[in-house]
Amino acid sequence: xxxxxxxxxxxxxxxxxxxxxxxxxxxxxxxxxxxxxxxxxxxxxxxxxxxxxxxxxxxxxxxxxxxxxxxxxxxxxxxxxxxxxxxxxxxxxxxxxxxxxxxxxxxxxx
Length: 110
Description:
This protein has 110 residues and is an alpha+beta fold.
């Protein structure tokens, strides 16, 4: 008894039809395991995707993947970002309130 299944490769964005034939008998488990194995190794898959990307972009790298703010994994950009602004505001507002309260003690309140 033979059974043919059509599977789809999860290894690439392009869905490839992969017919798989498993003959049920004494070694059906081994045949099923062999049919389920990926057709490419991880390095072959990475090379396949790199080549497909080069073909899709006519051999040019995407400009949005590169920036002057990064040197590998080290950030070389401006030290001012939203986190430093939030930290400065959360420190300066209470300090300004305390300075105002100290300057106006006895005049406006107390």
